[in-house]
Amino acid sequence: MKKLNVGIIGAGFMGKAHVVGYSNMPKLFWPAHAVPVMKTVCDIDPQIAAEAKDRFGFEKSVTDWRDIVNDPDIDVVSVCTPNDTHAEISIAAIKAGKHVLCEKPLASTLKAAKDMADAAEKVPNVITMSAYQYRRVPAVVLAKRFVDEGKLGNILNIRCVYLQSWSADPNSPLSWRFQKDIAGAGTLGDIGSHIIDIAQYMAGDIDEVVSMLKTYIPQRPIQEGGVDLLGTVKLNADAKKAPVDVEDEVSCLVKFKNGAIGSLEATRNAWGRNNYLAVEIHGTKGSILFNYERLNELQVCFADDPEHFRGFKTVHTGPAHYYGPATWNIPGMNIGYGELKAIEIFDFITAIVENKQPSTHFGVGYGIEKVCEAIKISANNSKWEKVK
């Protein structure tokens, strides 16, 4: 069976998630199209790199990402570093003939995202993927099927929200996610980009936006060390602080090219919401509701149901639905984030073996960044802004 040697750059939270995906993919999807081999892990912190090697079963660890990109034995590169490094690493990997899976957002600036998409287009035999895994939740893919088959009729409205609470505490440290020169944006790029992707996946390209961006916590305690802890550690209130220069919340109205309208809202400051990514679609023949905190369920309502029976009904996804091998034996056994990353890797490896770009290739990631740019401009001038 074909084997693909994997190099992961960045051994933090997302690096671990990618390792879980690569390791579990052939365990769930067997026979696998190809088997990933954990070859090399990279982190700029030597101790973190060495620990990741032993913890995750890599053959070796390095502290310079170029050692992975320039290694002729490496076939696949996962980029799990802060946003401002995505472009340099990914473009170098593409030029070296490596297949690249890059975490979202694609880059910290629109120009860098364009450069990445252009580089990928110039080397068509290299497969690129932006890590928008939420569109691969089986319930979301089922919703897309209902849309494509016309079960909802014409799409009238789509509402997408992504609410988290991990940065609601002002004592959460100032990680790179709160620094514009590294992240490029705050909530918009971090989690807002996910709902932009799902909105366009369901209803087509967004044509125009009007938006607001808001920062609630203007400064945070300075974080010691380079590990992004996503709010799981709180520093003392008297710790030295530094300014936050990105938004905590984004809220906007959108118009789609197909005539549908909708709204997008994302915040990391919503107490009580853990990972509340919710999508509601209304059409002329029915409605759909999905909530990631109950990711194995899809709520559906169809207009042609008998009047006494009309209302949202729950479909529990399982082996009869998309990515069935990953959803265990019967509906209700359920999947979680780990299986979802394995599904993402399954799509990535399948694209490599079939030499066919996946649904979230770098060009799609660049398209999401164009919407993000329009949202930023609109928030600044308080006007409707066309997506370029």
Protein model, in words:
The protein is an alpha/beta fold and 388 residues long. The protein has 2 domains: 3-133, NAD(P)-binding Rossmann-like Domain (Rossmann fold, 3-Layer(aba) Sandwich); 134-331 and 365-386, Dihydrodipicolinate Reductase, domain 2. It is 32% helix and 24% strand. It contains 10 helices and 17 strands. It has helices at 13-28, 46-56, 66-69, 86-95, 110-122, 138-148, 180-183, 187-203, 337-354, 362-381; strands at residues 3-9, 35-42, 60-62, 76-79, 99-102, 128-130, 155-163, 206-214, 219-221, 241-243, 249-256, 261-267, 276-283, 286-291, 297-302, 313-316, 385-386. The strands form 3 sheets. It has a 9-stranded mixed beta sheet. Strands 3-2-1-4-5-6 form a 6-stranded parallel beta sheet, sandwiched between helices. A two-stranded antiparallel sheet has the order 9-10. Helix 5 (110-122) links the parallel strand 5 and strand 6 (128-130). Helix 1 (13-28) packs across helix 9 (337-354). The longest helix is centred in the C-terminal third of the chain and has 20 residues, at 362-381. The chain starts with a strand and ends with a strand. 48% of the residues are buried. The mean pLDDT is 95.
